[in-house]
From TrEMBL, chains A, B:
Reaction equations catalysed: 3-hydroxy-L-kynurenine + H2O = 3-hydroxyanthranilate + L-alanine + H(+); L-kynurenine + H2O = anthranilate + L-alanine + H(+)
Leader peptide range in chain numbering: none
Positions of modified residues (N6-(pyridoxal phosphate)lysine): 222
One family name in Pfam for this protein: KYNU_C
Highest taxon above the source species: Bacteria
InterPro entries: Kynureninase, PyrdxlP-dep_Trfase, PyrdxlP-dep_Trfase_major, PyrdxlP-dep_Trfase_small
Keyword tRNA processing: no
Family assignment from sequence similarity: Belongs to the kynureninase family.
Protein name: Kynureninase
Originating gene: kynU_2
Gene3D superfamilies: Aspartate Aminotransferase, domain 1, Type I PLP-dependent aspartate aminotransferase-like (Major domain)
The organism of origin for this protein: Streptomyces stramineus
Lineage: Bacteria, Bacillati, Actinomycetota, Actinomycetes, Kitasatosporales
Coiled coil feature spans: none
């Protein structure tokens, strides 16, 4: 069986149209299945960052805000991210953390809500920070917060709902929520939606514009490989921008930031989502990292992602001793992100540590989840096969 | 006269105990007097950042959050900044922009205020972002905002004052406000104070602990040379930390961040000021940049700073044609930061551009201010002399 699966992996890799992309990353013999937490290093980053430090900061110094394009980088890099999540230019700005952007988006959405809408819905399985920040946004806008299962949002949204904050892909199980249908249902209820794309951007087509999403946020250090803590981003749909009333109206979002006007006049467009001075080194590392996406089709990424997780699930079924771990990731493609999560009721944490010692890196999420992220740009089918085989050995041991 | 001043500059440089520090920066023939906007590049940054990218991110990848100390970096770097502003360890956390930290601090301070205190004072000449963000904080905490001259704060604070937000050094004029007396007066009125240290940290001793300051924020890309948009910081005095109620309770500030608890329980200590995942590349560039402070006395920095600005003022008086520019920076040392601002009613913007073409970099702030920042670690008296001489030539031309 092992030989048959190994041969199948080799055949799938040989037919993989994205296979050449792997050479654009710094990788080694490790099977790195934690790109859903921190993406691998794109090879172009080191040289670009050395130039940003040595020449742009070191020699041009203050002139770089204009001459090296630092000032406009949040919008420029935002547009590059936007292209990967289905947003036309001028709607995405990069900067701050995901948490800070959740605050901007949820408060901004709540302030757009009509009379009597004072309820903020959050998906019950949300990544925790979204829930904490949404609660703060609710407290500071006179709203109350209610947690409901993401799948139940269409039925739960009502005349009091101002906005729902939803994770596109559940970080724990890898479940992909139905963005088009959920967005439409919330709109039908008169509510806005904020999508958190942390676990979908760069893994699958998102289609923000196509589906009429109101607001979206996400990080760039997972499937977008922007580096540790790379700047997050905020999407505000074009027709909402003029009414977007940010709770963090820093000077970078002013219509005339160097006018030093004591009165605040917000900028038009995506720049309204800016706050303070952007962390340029992290931002331009992200900019360089995004080069790996040149010429890549998100449809091809999605097709490979599903093929990888399908194949890994088959291999895991073949290698893992019965009962030691079971997948909690949905089987239907329409409900699956780009990770596989296995529930491993006994010794999950130790098993993941042992996997790492044997050259397979995933991660462990309490209480019992083994997470394996599949990043189609640099992960191949032989990697998936090896990971499942080693997992089987560890869990049999 | 020119020869006498040149000789004096040479003598002052020869006697300068901080002179050797200049070799720790990447500099050239330019007289760089814009370190109050973007500090020059410390030589140690490039190597450190190359290692962070190539080894910590590229090879250790996700393991670096623990093994390379990424997770604890905001507190560790915060303590290093704290040492430079008179804060004992455990009270400063690095991360986010100054604007975001102003929001945390002002909301946090307003939430500590006693019954009936619903007024937030801001200094009338504040750097604009502080005023914009304070207004948002007021709006979201049910307070009103009132702008008063920083010097008038002691008399203006009253029984309704919750908190005052004050710039330690006025960005436009270089005026240093009296932190000990203002803090004491606000406390006497039952109010809290948030100091913005952007233009004082690294330029003079601040003494946060010694003077009982409640909250402070600041950037690290000016006198601290942390790089473009380097992470800002938040100081919350130790005895206030347990009651600090952050408006941005992101998962990094949770008592058990990897517990993924749907309920928010804030961390103890400085970590409560964290929000989302820190921008590690920018943060560790700052960390490396702070190495230049090893063994440096802030008293020596302050003494040299005042000597530099004194000398520059004398040189400017000697070289600048009468009436073409006049200093708006206070003469008394106790009222002066580390910059000299000259009001130049006609052609200030063009004069500053011409200065740059002649190798002297300062900056221009509308409507008519020429700003020259003096960074004692890498600026010498001959630099000050040359800047004033070239300024005189430009304004005479």
């Amino acid at each position: 069986m092992s030989e048959r699966l190994a041969a199948e992996a080799a055949a799938l890799d040989a037919a993989d149209g994205l296979r050449a992309k792997r050479a654009e990353f710094v990788l080694d013999d490790t099977v790195y299945l934690d790109g859903n937490s921190l993406g691998a290093l794109p090879a172009s980053v080191a040289g670009r960052l050395a130039d940003v430090v040595g020449r742009e900061w070191g020699r041009l110094r203050i002139r770089s805000w204009e001459e090296s394009g630092w000032w406009a980088a949040p919008e420029r890099v935002g547009d590059r991210v936007g292209a990967l999540v289905g947003a036309a230019p001028g709607q995405v700005v990069a900067g701050d953390s995901t948490s800070v952007n959740v605050f901007k988006a949820v408060v901004g959405a709540a302030r757009l809500a009509g009379e009597g809408r004072d309820e903020i819905l959050v998906d019950a399985a949300t990544f925790p920070t979204d829930g904490y920040i949404a609660a703060s946004a609710a407290r500071m806008t006179g709203c109350r917060i209610r947690a409901v299962d993401a799948g139940d949002l269409p039925g739960e949204a009502g005349p009091r709902t101002a906005v729902a904050l939803v994770n596109h892909v559940d970080y724990r199980t890898g479940r992909l929520h139905d963005l088009p249908a959920t967005t439409a249902a919330l709109h039908a209820a008169g509510a806005r939606v904020v999508w958190d794309l942390c676990h979908s951007a760069g893994a699958l087509p998102v289609g923000l514009d196509a589906h009429g999403v109101d607001f979206a946020v996400g990080c760039t250090y997972k499937y977008l490989n922007g580096g540790p803590g790379a700047p997050a981003y905020l999407y505000v749909r074009r027709d909402l921008q003029a009414r977007f009333d940010s709770p963090l109206p820093g000077w970078n979002s002013h219509a005339d930031p160097f006018g030093m006007d004591p009165a605040y006049t917000p900028a038009e467009g995506a720049a309204r989502g800016r706050v303070g001075t952007p962390e340029i080194l992290s931002l331009l590392a992200l900019d360089a990292a995004l080069d790996v996406w040149d010429g890549v089709s998100l449809d091809a990424v999605r097709a490979k992602s599903l093929a990888l997780t399908d194949f890994f699930l088959r291999c895991a079924e073949a290698y893992v001793p019965g009962g030691r771990a079971r997948s909690v990731t949905p089987v239907p493609h329409a409900e699956r992100g780009s990770q596989v999560s296995l529930s491993c009721p006994s010794g999950a944490g130790e098993a993941m540590a042992e996997l790492a010692r044997r050259g397979v890196v995933g991660d462990f999420r309490r209480p019992d989840v083994l997470r394996f992220g599949f990043t189609p740009l640099y992960t191949g089918f032989a990697d998936a096969h090896r990971a499942a085989r080693v997992l089987g050995e560890v869990l049999a041991g």
